[in-house]
Every structure is written in C-alpha cells, then in structure tokens.
Amino acid sequence: MPQSAVAPTYRVGVLGASGYSGRELCALVLGHPNLTLAFATANSQRGTTLRVRAGGRVHDVPMVAPEEADLAGVDLVFAALPHGASAEWIGKVIAAGARVVDLSSDLRPGHGGVTHALPAGVPADAPYGMPELFRADMANARVVANPGCYATSILVALAPLAKSGLIAPGATVNISSASGVSGAGASPKLELLFAEITEDFRAYGVGNAHRHLYEMRATLARLGADCDLLFTPHLLPVDRGILSTISVPLSRPLSDALAPYREAYANEPFVELTTGLPALADVQHRNVVRIGAVIPTGLRQDTLLVFSAIDNLVKGAAGQAVQNANIMLGLDEGAGLQA
Amino acid sequence: MPQSAVAPTYRVGVLGASGYSGRELCALVLGHPNLTLAFATANSQRGTTLRVRAGGRVHDVPMVAPEEADLAGVDLVFAALPHGASAEWIGKVIAAGARVVDLSSDLRPGHGGVTHALPAGVPADAPYGMPELFRADMANARVVANPGCYATSILVALAPLAKSGLIAPGATVNISSASGVSGAGASPKLELLFAEITEDFRAYGVGNAHRHLYEMRATLARLGADCDLLFTPHLLPVDRGILSTISVPLSRPLSDALAPYREAYANEPFVELTTGLPALADVQHRNVVRIGAVIPTGLRQDTLLVFSAIDNLVKGAAGQAVQNANIMLGLDEGAGLQA
Amino acid sequence: MPQSAVAPTYRVGVLGASGYSGRELCALVLGHPNLTLAFATANSQRGTTLRVRAGGRVHDVPMVAPEEADLAGVDLVFAALPHGASAEWIGKVIAAGARVVDLSSDLRPGHGGVTHALPAGVPADAPYGMPELFRADMANARVVANPGCYATSILVALAPLAKSGLIAPGATVNISSASGVSGAGASPKLELLFAEITEDFRAYGVGNAHRHLYEMRATLARLGADCDLLFTPHLLPVDRGILSTISVPLSRPLSDALAPYREAYANEPFVELTTGLPALADVQHRNVVRIGAVIPTGLRQDTLLVFSAIDNLVKGAAGQAVQNANIMLGLDEGAGLQA
Amino acid sequence: MPQSAVAPTYRVGVLGASGYSGRELCALVLGHPNLTLAFATANSQRGTTLRVRAGGRVHDVPMVAPEEADLAGVDLVFAALPHGASAEWIGKVIAAGARVVDLSSDLRPGHGGVTHALPAGVPADAPYGMPELFRADMANARVVANPGCYATSILVALAPLAKSGLIAPGATVNISSASGVSGAGASPKLELLFAEITEDFRAYGVGNAHRHLYEMRATLARLGADCDLLFTPHLLPVDRGILSTISVPLSRPLSDALAPYREAYANEPFVELTTGLPALADVQHRNVVRIGAVIPTGLRQDTLLVFSAIDNLVKGAAGQAVQNANIMLGLDEGAGLQA
C-alpha cells in the first residue's frame, strides 16, 4: 500500500471510550496511519487505563474525564456517548473548532424519535454518514451523524431497490435481524451476563419499537420508496455481528437477484456481494457490508429475499465512523480500515 | 404423582438411536413410567453402548443392528431413521404387528416433496401427529407421522389464525426461524464442528427450499388458509431450540394479539402463552410450544407478529413422538413428559 | 418411587433468592415432594417475581424483602446471602425457631478466613454439610454450613486418600479447577458480560488466594492429611459446572486408581465413579460428584491424577443444601433430587 | 513500517491446506509482504476452493492434489500434513530443491514418540523451530521442525527457569493446559460437533499420554533441567487459544516472579510479560506467547506458578512457522506477523 511521502497526520479524540464502540474506535485510531489518539474519555473509569489491541500490540490507553479532554487540541472528535447525552458535547467540540463524527442517534434523520433542543452551533440536519449512499454530503461537513448498526445493515441492502423503484408501493418490507451482544453495550446488566445469554435466543424491541426505525424510514423516503417496515431485532449468543434477513415485495419481477446490487455498488470497496449467503464469520472485524440475495419460489407476490451481514462494531459503528472521518479530512477513504 | 396400582406397561423399541432425536427418545423412554426400552438400533455403532441420562441416572444402552431388533416383541416402535430410509422399516414393523411413530418426513402430509413407492401395509395417509390440531385422528392409528421440528413451531402458531379465517387470503406469511445445531443431526460434517459454528450465524435452505414446507402448506390448506409461506431457516450457535418469528397479514384487525391462542389452546397442556416474548431458555428440555404475539405499529396492512419457541429435540421430535405414542397406547397423554 | 401414604411436608423459605444458587434452591423446593416454598426474599428485587422452572412447569415466585419473611412460620430456611451478611440473618432464624442451611462461608470450617463476631445463638462450630464425609454430624443440627462449590468437588475427591494415609506427608497437592460463570454470581459486572466471557479462558484468584482454601485445609487436617494445597481456579465460557484436575503425590504406590473411591463410596448415591474421564456434560443439573482417576506414567514420585466434576449450582450449592435439609428433617436423603 | 525498496519476494507452497493450521498458513502467506502463495494442496478437497480472509479481503484459494504441486517452483514449503505422513513429502520437497517448515511431529525432538525410517535427505536432527530458544540453529537449515502448540506454550514458559537452574532437580512440574477446539483439527468427528462441545469441558490424553511430551522432555533436558512433567490437556468450548497453568517446584526461593522472564526475553518481540494473568482474549489471532507468574503463599516447597497463553493456530502453529520461514529466508523475523 504505497502512501505519499508526506501523508498528513491528524489528532483525534474519543468521547465515551469505555463502551464497545468506543474501544473499537481507540483500536482503529491507534492502528491508523494518519491519525493519532490525543485523548480518550470515560467518565466512570477516569484514571484507569483501557487495554486495546491494535497493530499487533496491546496498548494501555489512559481514560480521562471528558472535562479534562483538550477539545481545542484536536482536529476531529469521535463522540460515542449515550443517546441524549451527545448533543451537549458536540456543541462544545464545535465551539472548540474541531469536527465531529457522532455515533449517537441524536443527529440522525428522525433523531431517534426524540426531539431535543440542540445547543448552539449543532446542526439539526447533519449529513447522514453512510458513504455508499451519501458520500457527497460529507465533503465539507463539520458534523456527521454516524448511522445505527441495524440501519447500516438494512439501508445498504434496501437502497438500490428503493432508488430503482423496485419496492412495491404501500407494501410491508419484513426485516428479521439478529445481533451479537456487543450491540447492547458494555453497561453491566443482569440480562447481558454470560449465564443469561449462552444457549439462548430471543427477540426484543418488537412491534416496530426500535430506535433505528426512524433513520431507516426517513432515509427510504428520501430515496423515493413508499413502503412500510416491520423490523424485529433478536439477540444472539455471539459477541459481534448483525445478520439481517429482509423480504421485499417487488413492484416488478426480477430475474437476477443480485443485479441491483452489482449496478449500485460496482465501485464500492466496502460492499461485498456473494452468490452464496453471507454469514457473521465472513464480516467480523471487517469494515464491510456483505450482501446475498435470492428470488424465492412458490409465491404469488414477486419478492426478493436479501441477506446483509456486518460487524456491528466496525461497519455498524467504529469502522464506518473512521471511514466518514477519512472523507471529512480528505484522507484515503479506506485508510486504517484494511487490517 | 399418584398412579393407578395397575398402570399398564408397554415394550417399545427405537430404530436409529444414535442421532440426537434417537438419543432423546431413549432418554424419554427410560424415564417413562409406562414404557420399557426393548431395543435401540444404530447401524454404524452396533456393538457399542450409548450413554443416556434419564431419571437422575446415567444409563448405558446397548446399540444393536436393526436386523437384530426383535420387532415382534414390542408394542410400538419409534423410527428415527433418515428421510427416505424409513418407509422400508415401517413396513417390517407393521408386518411384525407393532405400531409405529415415524419421525422421518416420508409419511407426513406432502411426503417431504418426494414420492416414494411405499411398502405393502404402509399407509400413504398416516395421521399427522400434532395432537393439538389432530388428536382425534390418532386414536386407532397403527402408524403416526411425527411432524418436523420447524413445522411444529410454525403450525401450532398459525393454526388458530388459519381456522378462524384471520390470515389474509393470498397474502405471504413471512417466517424467519432459527434453530440450534442439534437440529442438523449427529452426522460428523465439517460445517457442524464447534470451530465452524461458534460466534457465527447464517441462513440456509433459503428461497423456500426446505423440506418442512410441504407439510406446512398441506396442513394450512387443510385448516382452510389460502396463503403463501416464505420460510427462511437460520443456524444458531446453540445446542437446542427453535424460535420462529412469524409475520401474518390479517384479513381483519385484531385488538388482542393473544386472543386467538387463548381460545384455541385453553385446554392444551403442552402449549404455553406468554404476554412477553418466548425465548429458547424457556423451553429447552421441555415438551411445550411457547407462544407470544404483538400487533406492530406503523403498518398500513393489519398484521400479527407471532413468536413461537420449542425445543427441537423434545416438542420438535422425541417429546412429541412420546406424546403421540401415549395417545396411541391409551396412556395419559403427558406420561413421561413432565420431568 | 413409592412413598409412604403419610409423607410429611415441611415449610421452608429461601433468603437471597435472586442469585443463581437462590434460584436453583427455589426450583428444587418447588419440585420437592415434601417441601413447600413459604417465601423467597431478594432485597433489590422485592415486589417482582422470579421465573423458575420446576416439575415441567414455569412458576412465578414473588420476591419479598427479608424483613417481610415470616421466619416463625417455617421449619427450615435456606440462607443464600452474601458472605459476611449471612450470620445476622441466621441468628434471626434461630431465634424464630427454624433450622438453617447456610450457603455462605461464614460458618464453614475456617470461616472463609474471616473472623466474625457471631450473633447470639449462632454456633461457631456448625456441622459442615458434606454428607458423604460428615453425615452423622447433622442428625440433630439446627444449623448446617453448606460447603463451597470448589471445596465440594475437591474434598470428595481427596477424602478417601486422606483417610487412608495415601497423601504423601508434606507434599503439595496441585489442584487446577475450572468453573462455569454462574459460580461468579448474578451480580451485574462488566467482566461477566457475555461479550467478555465468550471465547475466553483465564485463571483468577491465583496463588492460593481463594476463600474456599480455608474449609479445604481445615477439613483435610481433620481427616488426617498433612499436605499443602496449591489451588488455581479458572473461569470457563460455560454456564454451569466445575471440573477439578487434582495431582496427588502418594505415600505408597497404588495399583488401581479407583480402588480408594470404590471402597469409600460404595454406598453413596450421589458419588459416581467412572473408568473414563468425567465431563461437565455428565453432571449438569444433577446432584452428583463424578470421579475418574489415572496413575500417570513417567514420574519418579508416585502420583495419582484425579478428576472430579460437579454442577456448581446443584451438588456445589443448592442440591447439596437440599440433601442436607433432607437429613436434618428426617426425610429420604435423595428426596427432590432425582429429577 | 518502512521497507527496503528492493524487498525480496519468495514463492511458497502449503501442503495440507484444508486443516485449521493449513488455512491459517494460507491467510498469513496471502497477507505477507515478501511471500506469494504458489500452491495449496488438500487431497480430499482437490478441485474446490478454500475461502481465506487476509489483508482485509476474502480470497478463494484453489486446492490441488499434492501430486499436482510444483515443488520445484517454490523456495519454501510449509508442510501441515498429518503426523506420520509428513516425512515422505519432506523428502520430495528437499529433492526438488526447496526448503521446508514441517508442522508435524515427525522431525521434532523425540519424534513424537514414534521411530520412522526417514526418506533419503530428510535429517533426523532438524532444528527445532522455537526462535526464542534456538534461533541460531535455523540460519542455514533446509528443514525446520515447527513445535507443537502445547509444547510452545509450555517450553517458552519453562525455558528461563530450566536454563537458570531454578527447577528443583527430580521434582514434578505440574502442567494443566486447556485448548480451543481448533487444536483438534478440522476432520469431521462426532465428538467435535458443536452440540458435543458447547457448555462442556473435559480432560483428554491424560496420564502423560500426549504426543507433545516427547519434544518437551527432550528440550528441557537439552536446557539442563532434570525434572519430570505431569501434563494434562483439556478441551475448551472455544475456537482458538491455549492457556497453560504450570506449577514449578523451585530449587531456591524467588522474590520476583517475573524476573527470570524479564531477563530471558527482554529482546524478544513475540514474548509478552504481564503483571496480571494472561487470557485467551489477549492472544487470539496474534503471534505471541503471553506470560504471567505468581509466587503462591502457604506452601512448604518453594514454587512458582506460571501462566502462558498463545493462539494455538498462530504462535502454536502457522504464525511460528512463518516466523521460522522468515529466519530461514533472511527476512525480517516479524514480516507478515504484525497484523
């Protein structure tokens, strides 16, 4: 991978480094050729160090309180704070002159269903950081809203169908997703203990109650689709990975299940198509969306069955955040993401 | 548990005891108050013993070749042989004068999509052994076709809707199921090794290619439903259990999601309803179908979202087989199934 | 299992029902033919119900605050409270006239290494409730100290050697144990989350720092052994089960590795010997210690290698507690433990 | 990572690419800056392709029969063939003029306990490829015997003690190791199926019966230690990783548990020391041995308790093989191993 002799280097910080997305961000930044980690904050673990594996080594990253972070001394901040708590800090970062990739739902399309009064300087219409769909929006952005993990797996799979009018108007797109437990965060909760999760499987947030539906509906509408979504997430006894199984009623027959994807993503380095079926093992620790599709037999309604697999912490969170930061900073979009 | 002083005892045999369903059958028979295990066959493991846990003890069950089994000396045979290999042995058992519960797909409605020439004496229309739907058919049956594991989890969930005309005519019922690995059998295959399954999740048999669709379609038609099924099974990194997530377009609005189930299954000891969401941990090692349901918001099409959990080796195979045998032999339907 | 027509029934309570041992106690009591569950306390979860599977059914057990428990209305209390917090409640139970099986380390030999001032009426020398070694001590006891899980797996394996002088005087007995995560309790801690445990394995409490060493050393001394223990516990990515691998320097050669066990445990229903190697899968959900042993080759020092497997929540906690309660109440020792 | 403008490139082949070590070798070679993969053989899977993840991409590597491999067209061959089958192929490779890193036990010290007549040209005393101990032996070697996975984890932990005379003469070093299932190979066997391994833990090959004992004993003798080994491997429900827990009777007291390791491995890039306890999660997918040590209390015999963690497929097999190949070919020893 030849790189220019004068590759620029930027200083970045991570707000909320003790969660699983925050840890992954630290690892990606530490292994990134053009980024250096200036600070990592974790309110409850201030004063401790976080063990992070990157570039073949184990790093001990000191955790500081967010108030101690030198916001003015960095070029960009990754904010991996809880939903609702993020906007305030984004305001401070912007005031300090740095850019932001925000991993909360606060600034995403639909704002996670919650209307917050945003601090001064925080845009209500931050670009939605899904490069494969909206790369151009991010060129000069000061703030980018990083998509949700489920939303990433689903929208990358639905967008080519939406844009080409293939989704039957008024129909229900049925989405059954299953996520590894790291998607539920690193807060200690009884129901996330090993003994509660191993050998089990269950749905949660059912009946269209999940926060990610807002950004999915808003984005599909923007892409021209007039459909309903029925989204049912499940909790898997695995660490990381999301598989979405998506049934799409079609407005017209399709003879080649993958054709819409070949066309839409021919030049996308972080979308993989397979003539087989994507599995979590194909995507773990990688910044890709891996897509397979089949046309089911025996149905009166023309239908496409799409499978989409991602690593929820990489393409579903930290990896996509770094991809977005690369775009915002004018770096190679894949820098730090090939390992 | 008071039992009559003159509780009858029947001698039974298991054909195909080395698979996971066969092992579970041996365990249930060994712990059954009215059954004794006369023989257990396993062609490739003849001469060895199978370790089976039942009634608080570990038993060593000798495996014999099927040719060595004394078919004439038993009252009933459980046939847990591979699909396609079962019919021949059923013929021999019937000729020997014993009854049969067959766990293969050979005699189920739709015959697993394969037309076999059946041996003399083997009925093409054996009752389908799902007691909650077709108990009366089994009273005097010499042969009962035990349902498939996925079919059990799905048909018990769909039957009350089908019978009351709630499924929208012509609509597609969307079924996403996930099964533990024991459902794939005990044949050594690379893709079932621990190192291949742990931390992974994937679909298989997609696009309406699974054998169980035949018995599901035939049964729904018999119950009066005119719908299409889109069935997508997935492979879970767990030992046992199936969760089916089923989206049903409705012909009319429903105000109480569980009402059809309360009515249909009020007196069924092996169907459990929950106002929450059923999980694999609720049903493992138990002979039940556990059902939850919600009415999703935000959809133009009236829809019911149903969740159905079973243990694939118990209510999905061996437990239901014992339940059927109890009915055929005039025993208490739950005998040997409460542990 | 024929039982007398006038089988007595006793009322019991569980203090500390929300932990894994407490839940298992509730399940065993609910399935016990001679016990009824009068109350179950859980300070932090008072007012909620605990879902417990027992006797083929799912029970919803109401949780009350310990202050609300009717201590005077029960015959026996199982105390599954944190180490250090138990003695106070034992005093109250005794004052109310009930018996106690205490699952904490407070009253065990060596008292877990901590000297507490015991409340009035609480004996400092409560019998150590390991029936296979000290059954006679419990006949008229008002309080029994239930052994630790590791201690159970190790002492049942070492006792026959200790009593027959087979352990080389002054030698170090090397014990490497591995436990399922339920042994670490149900308190939400980051390090016990599924994502932290899956695919990992590590030691903890090393260098002879574990609380169970006190009861092990005291008990071995009582049995006549003069040896040192080097005990290293490890944390397994499984729910339940302990396997202890124990290397014992011998005072004299042994020709038959299992001989000491055959002699010592010929009439013990809850000790199983195997000429193979015991595994967690053999003992999960069962009230047994399963023991295997081999004489290693190539060593100058005569040595016996012993393997001991238990379910940490059953024979290692709740099951042994019920076994002890059965003895204290004059019931069949195995009542409620055969399922 | 600056690299010389004229970094050499070598062509290599993999014999036995379908096993877990073989797959890992293909992945490491594909991601190696100085190696290209000329062929990969797999007798039973000839004509198929192997999916390998390397360098952020998924590669489809064609499998050929070993007879089709162009042995004369490569500089070095990695032989990952079954024990006993390797020597014949090594002879052919040497005759064709290429070098060999052999991952079988056939050429290791002690030869895995089996005396084979070696083909012409195959040295009976190939250097033992553990660079941290015997780097100098490999400089001009045509054949290197890659160590066993258990042997790597144990010998790197024992060597500093052996060389400094710290192991008490005549004493028994007690080793309890636990390995992920990938160490048992990719041959489909019933006992390696997911449903057999999950939630279980057991010992195997006990009583000093494991093949790796030969190379461990021979190497310790070479390093000057006069001790016995008692080695007990266990099978973990994880994919990859070995943790060895080693109790070493000392010839003299030690005040700093890690001192021998700090001295011996100060300049070794692939040995990590920790003042905590090493865990599998620290080493998976990395070419390191991670070591922790404590001095246990309460023992009459001075003792050191050492913990050693490796990834059995990396430092325990394919990674160490690449490290050895780098040495043999004059490359940077860590080339291709930092990812």
UniProtKB/TrEMBL annotation, chains A, B, C, D:
The pathway where this protein functions is: Amino-acid biosynthesis; L-arginine biosynthesis; N(2)-acetyl-L-ornithine from L-glutamate: step 3/4
Please write the reaction equations for the catalytic activity of this protein.
N-acetyl-L-glutamate 5-semialdehyde + phosphate + NADP(+) = N-acetyl-L-glutamyl 5-phosphate + NADPH + H(+)
Keywords attached to this entry: Amino-acid biosynthesis, Arginine biosynthesis, Cytoplasm, NADP, Oxidoreductase
Subcellular location, record wording: Cytoplasm
Q: Where is the Semialdehyde dehydrogenase NAD-binding domain?
A: 11-141
Query: What's the short name of a Pfam family annotated to this entry?
Result: Semialdhyde_dhC_1
- Give me any GO biological process, just one: L-arginine biosynthetic process
Q: What does this protein do?
A: Catalyzes the NADPH-dependent reduction of N-acetyl-5-glutamyl phosphate to yield N-acetyl-L-glutamate 5-semialdehyde.
What family does the Swiss-Prot or TrEMBL record give for this protein?
Belongs to the NAGSA dehydrogenase family. Type 1 subfamily.
HAMAP family registered for this protein in UniProt: ArgC_type1
Name of the protein = N-acetyl-gamma-glutamyl-phosphate reductase
| Annotated organism of origin | Gemmatimonas phototrophica
